[in-house]
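Why this split exists: single-chain examples teach little about how molecules sit against one another. For that reason, every record in the complexes split bundles all components of an assembly together and asks for one structure covering all of them. Below is a record exactly as it appears in the raw files.
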Amino acid sequence: MSAHRPQWHAPRRRTWRLMARYVAAIILTLLFLFPVYWLFMIAFKTPEEIFHSPPVWYPARIQFTNFAVLFKDGDAVTVGNSLFIAACSTLISMFFGTLGAYSLARFRTGGENLAVWIISQRMIPPIAVVFPLFLLYVWFGWVDTYFGMILLYTAFNLPYVIWMMRGYIEDVPIDLEQSALVDGCTRWQVLLRVVFPMVRTGLFATAVFSFVFAWNDFIFALVMTRSAVTTYPVQVTHYFGAQSNFWAKIAAMSVLGTLPVLVAVAALQKYLVRGISLGAVKG
Amino acid sequence: MAPLRLIGLHKYYGKVHAVRGIDLEIPQGEFTVVVGPSGCGKSTLLRTIAGLEEVDRGTIEIDGVPINDMRPRDRNVAMVFQSYALYPYLTVFENIAFGLRARKVKKSEIEAAVRGAAKTLGINALLDRYPRELSGGQRQRVAIGRAIVRDARLFLFDEPLSNLDAQLRDEMRGEIKRLHQRLGKTIIYVTHDQIEAMTLADRIVLLKDGIIEQQGAPLDLFERPATRFVAGFLGSPAINFIPADLVGDNGSLTLRAHDGRRFDLPASRVARLAAWVGKPVIFGIRPEHVALERGGSVRPGFAVQEVVIDLVQPTGSRLFGTFMLGSQEVVAELGAHDVSRPGERVKLLFDMNRAIVIDPETERVL
């Protein structure tokens, strides 16, 4: 009899351990998601509900007044600004960054040191360069322009894109490219038809990170924009006043600002996880 | 005009002189196997022909036109890689069609060409699959299909079978040979496997340290090796090399091994070897040229030695018996039932007509 005991004992212990893990995971998820939940709820509440004591957990009726105000007052344009600037700078830095990365990976451009120098550019804290850059921008007349902001984020994202994409490209078996060359491809065709499909995962992951950097940036946007191309993080700060805070606007604006990233990450989740872990394995 | 001609080809990797002055002419429709130990420069040679490596000195000509500065895509060669180099994100059909699409061939032509190649290789049922869903042998066929679908001037194979297991390798070897017989394409095939070289080649080019050691028909190289290296590289089990002295008494020549055993050379060899009398040489004899003496009179040109077999390795159809001549281990390829156990004392016949004599200094066959 006793010989049988461990056989049904062991699976049962495993089940308990698994359940404990799930419970812990659920509690942690709820804990982390709660502020997000609260923010989203505020965005749909009436002013009375927002300031109600004790707090109400969810609005009695979903209403969009808070958002309507943002669009009516023109505040929502800043989300559009952010979207446009982040998207443009991501596209540009992905295009040139991937080309640069290919050059570094396959033609050993600049030897080993150039690549390290490039990534070192990314390690400069933004605060160290923001004021010199501001003076430069004033001189060129680029302050508060789309061009200036796109250029700025492109400059900051390029090293990151080059560094990441170099790793992904180096992982592509060189035989695949050489086989394509012999089969009749030009270098450009090799890039389009072999390299891009092979690094698709890394391409998406890197693009999302570049986008999020530009999307989240506050310090550059604060210094370099005035009113024409204000981005949404800067706009949100306008709602924190000396006398009062505009909680409804803050929440609605935050929802607007979160949605694009949320959608992008959700859509590309498969690639993101694989892309990040790919980089991790390479070390 | 020869489809391919290499003239004084040199290639360096930094300080390493990988290819050191190769002259080679490949006739139309010939199956040439470039063989040699790893690091002999054979893959480098193939890659310079494909245009994947630059030539440092010398000329490569295809149909009489120098192609040194031509891009790979303009050389009209097709290549099968050791790793197969299949595109994991494309189906078998698209993998085979890849080169044609890159060259903007018409859709209807691509369809016909891919189906034709797939039929030739027996993979028409796999066209919708992805490489990851294929076995090693099937992947190999797709890789070959991608090459033959193009009407290239020259087909390059870079150790295409080395990733397959032994049985599949034998099978694919046969298929590649049959493919060549059917299509009659000019093929340059690189391998380190001497059996592949012997079985596939119309002509073997044996490379060593970036230099052609010898080239010719497989049997020519096997039976009339020019150097010790060639004799030792071809044949399995390898040829036996026995240090000996060449001694002559009244018109006949004898090889005297260091343990004193004497191997009389046939009279036909006397004229050629007379100058080496009294000098140390290396006596080479292949395992299959040593047989069990079964009694009766010994024919001229054979030497009889009594030895003790100390290692018996049966292969089923044959048996490899190892024995010592002085301090030298020697292998004989005997009949499956010639020796029953190690330690057995037997008389062996050495076919001295097939023996080779090597100058130990130059390592050339005399």
